[in-house]
Amino acid sequence: MKLEAARERAAQLREELNMHSYRYYVLNSPIISDGEFDALMDELRALETEYPELKQPDSPTQRIGSTPSDGFEKVEHPAPILSLDKATQEGEIFAWHTRIAKLLPENTSPLSYVVEPKFDGLTVVLHYTDGLFTLGATRGNGQIGEKITNNLRTINTLPLRIPTTPNGPQPPGNLVIRGEVLILLQDFEKLNEKLAESGNAIFANPRNAAAGSLRQLDPQITAGRPLYLYAYSIVTTDGEVPTTQWETLEYLKALGFVIAEDVCRKFDTLEEVARYCVAMNEKRNQLPYEADGLVIKINDLAIQETLGAIGGRPRGAVAYKFPPQEATTTLLDVEYSVGRTGTITPTALLEPVAIAGVTVSRASLHNFDFIEERDIRIGDRVVVHRAGDVIPYIVGPIIDARAGAEQPISPPEVCPSCGEALVHPEGEVAYTCVNTTCPAQRVQKLIYFTHVLDIEGLGERTAEQLVERGLVTAPSDLYTLDREKLLELEGFANKKADNLLEAIATAKKQPFASVLAALGIRGIGLTVAKLLAQHFNSLDALATASEESLAGVEGIGPITAQNIKAWFSRKHNQEMVEKLRAAGLNLATGETGTPESADQPLAGLTFVITGTLSQPRDTIKTWIESLGGKITGSVSKKTSYLIAGEDPGGNKYTKAQQLGIPIIDEAALKTLGE
Ligand code: IVH
Q1: C-alpha span between 14 and 437 (Å, rounded)
Q2: Which domain holds residue 350?
Q3: Of the four, 33, 108, 231, 332, which is 20 to 30 A from 308 by CA?
Q4: Domain-ending residue, one of 481, 509, 537
């Protein structure tokens, strides 16, 4: 392609990709598939490689910053980035209001208020010039921050260019906005799991994780971290500014930023504000991020302006802080558990304590580095923190409360499950059991396998029993289970056994990428498995791929490549693969047996049978199931077809008629199955 044509195409691709990533990350409503998105991205990357002069700062290829960060130069903010006064109790909200009401002119019209979450993340200041994201900085001391533009560029919810959609509003020439960067709770848990699995230190909480990720000198590392941006105010602009905070939020949203829509509210009375604050405190654990309170803002921005600031805190807003989700209690003991890859995790056993209405008696101690760093001892009074549904964690000991009898904690030398000596490689945080027959690892591998493949009905206790009784050593042994074996287990009766067997059988329909992820190879979660599946198409191709070709796949590092090679070289893993193959799981992408494939024409369809058919019902049932369909006993909205034989029973027939469900005969069923 000639340079001019390439330039034009690159511009078009940038615009399209930015629009699609806005739809995907901000609106959660993509209109193209991941594959199509990747293809556009590949095309742009290829053009930019051929003509490096086409690289633009708003190019989506730059989200994965390739150039090192600017070593954190200092930048002066265009206006002071103020912090807020606090109200810790409902009463203090009214006290704040009384203070400011005195300062307002007599003829001020009735006030309205906007309430927003007070995100517990990192404040950032983002500059846009003619719609292009040109500079981003930390808050720093409020006057001067650090330039972290390249790191911020890696955040998918940060628009690189405004407008983000073809009909979005045109931005002003200069626009500086303020927002908060954080890590969503669910992503935080996943990030820590990933870090722990690769033997790295994990983060104590989402805020630390966000801070540590944002201030990385290498944007590549930042790019691998699930940072998220919420926008909430305009710092300066030369364009027309909204006159209220509520309109500001709407405007930021229209520009393509994420705002905390589910939580933000506008009220006309302070009583309603206070009621909302109290109600939100009850619901704080349902939020997808950590918020340490709510921010109450006078809606009218001119009034905020008139009120001015005192001691670097604006009078026109106040932070209502939720009561702390922390409590102190005594650390009674430490329990060690073995993960599926053999990593030993310490858990604190606590004297039960109530935190925000929930009794907590166990908390994460992260890892042994953390214990040593904080000098946590058994018998210590410790601070425990709880956020969302994330498992509570120990913040640290209260050194002043020590009586002298506290016992230091040292890592165990042998595996608590199998008694083998643990290994602790130089430079790694993890203590690991490398015994391949360790029962605890078997249990955890089995549980992991069932989670990834959506096999319901196999909890921890069942997994333990299956392993203890020798019924399962590797997850593939699930396919040797039958009703009789399951009935041996505690708590199993016919129905429960049948349900579990059905769930195990249904997993055969899971796509190759899920099966690959379920194998539990270090570093291969579902995302990486999808990449590998796309690239290698089959487990056999993956198993025989060289380390170089594995590491050549974008998104796969040399360590994961090594892990893959090592995994396939072990005999017991090869045996497991063969058992899974024999059981009929999908070990390749494409036509061979995925739900939509040619030999599963009834996949996704649910049938109900009524009346007498030409063959026994069981035979028909097996035939339908072999083609991917499902049979249920009664007609509901979810039924795809009612198969009516001779003398159809009244009930099912009438119900299907009422619900408008197609009623077919045996011949029509056969046609469907062809
Ligand atoms: S508004 C003049 N809104 O909490 C406006 N701040 O002490 C002042 N924060 O670090 C800030 N969420 O950056 C505002 N929805 C929100 C916020 C928020 C978190 C941060 C703020 C500052 C601290 C306040």
Answers
A1: 52
A2: 326-408
A3: 231
A4: 509
CA-wise closest residue to 528 among 564, 482, 500, 502: 564
Q: Over 60: is that where the pLDDT of 68 sits?
A: no
Number of domains in the chain: 6
**Is 121 within the bounds of a domain?**
yes
Cα separation of 585 and 125, whole Å? 50
Record the pTM. Answer: 0.62
Helices (H), 552-646: 558-569, 571-583, 617-626
Q: Among this protein's residues, is 118 annotated catalytic?
A: yes
CATH of the domain at 54: 1.10.287.610
Q: Are residues 482 and 458 in the same domain?
A: yes
| CA 233 to ligand 1 center in whole angstroms | 9
- Whichever domain contains 644, its CATH number is 3.40.50.10190
**Separation of CA 378 and ligand 1 centre (Å):** 38
Residue 116 domain flag = yes
pLDDT tens readout for residues 607-637: 888 888 877 777 788 788 777 788 888 888 8
CB 290 less than 6 A from any atom of ligand 1: no
What distance in Å separates the CA atoms of residue 434 and residue 421, rounded to the nearest whole number? Answer: 8
Is ligand 1 within 6 A of the CB of residue 84? yes
pLDDT at site 595 = 41
Catalytic residue among 55, 102, 118, 638: 118
Tell me if 415 is assigned to some domain: no
Band (pLDDT 50/70/90 cuts) for residue 28 is low
Give yes or no: residues 267 and 357 share one domain: no
Q: Which of these ranges, 193-202, 264-273, 405-414, 656-665, has the smallest mean pLDDT?
A: 193-202
Closest ligand 1 atom to residue 83 Cα is 7
| Mean pLDDT of the 509-525 span | 92
